[in-house]
Amino acid sequence: MRKNFAMKKLYYSISEVSKITELEQYVLRYWETEFDNLNPAKNLAGNRIYTNKDIKLILYIKKLLRDEKYTIEGAKKLLKNYNEKEELSVKENKRERTAYKQPAVLKSNELSLFNFSDTERQSAQPDTDKFLKKDLIELKTFLTNLLDELENT
């Protein structure tokens, strides 16, 4: 049974991921040791923080192991191909965003539109506006969901 994400968040705790994926927390921690691809970041307190990409990977691993009955070694081999597909889509995405130049000092929680200098913004190609609009829509959706959650608590 696949759970629907009620609210998209940037990061999920291990307990939230456990509920979403219907897996025990110890299973998630064990899979981190077995699958190199699964490597959630940790916050300042040392707690695991999972992204939506991590959750998709966990659900894929679960499908391979539980539904399709692969061994851990067999799943590892398939995940190598999974990584290649991910890398190809990332490379294609980078090619599409060549006009969307990000500064080297960009922090992971910052949007690129706030880091353009005036000269960079003026010299950017017209396609940049499309990507900036996409960032703003995503930010608006996130903030709206966050406000809704705060109002409901």
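The record above closes out task 2.4. Task 2.5 opens with a second protein, given below.
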Amino acid sequence: MNVELRPVDKDNFEEIVAMPKQDHVAANIRSLAQAWLYPSLRPRAIYADGKLAGFCMSGVDDDADDPADRGIPWIVRMYVLPDLHGRGIGSAAVRLLVAEIRRDYPAAARVRLSTHPENAHAIKVYLKAGFRDTGILDDGEEVFELAL
């Protein structure tokens, strides 16, 4: 299966907004609003074999409360349509997003993400990609980290 990340644009915006909301993941319209408010966030459409399969977003939190956390890239959202789970699309999208982060933030030593502790499927994908549980809880979500 060919998985790729594409910018969100006028051709895929409506379809991304219409995606069903999943447990443990913010609605895509909220993510797009956040990207509008915070230009460091980069929303991406996930395509599998040329068809829209999900949505993801990455960026740097320059407003972190702890100055040591500023400038760390994050995978802010990762969403694959439920009927496409288990096909490797999420794993491929994570690899592509990490590659973009390595390219765009060459000085970054790590990338982080967080997920709800009950989101076992996502946790499995992240661990398989090399992320490790930091033991940190952020707004009730477990924080995972990957050394770059």
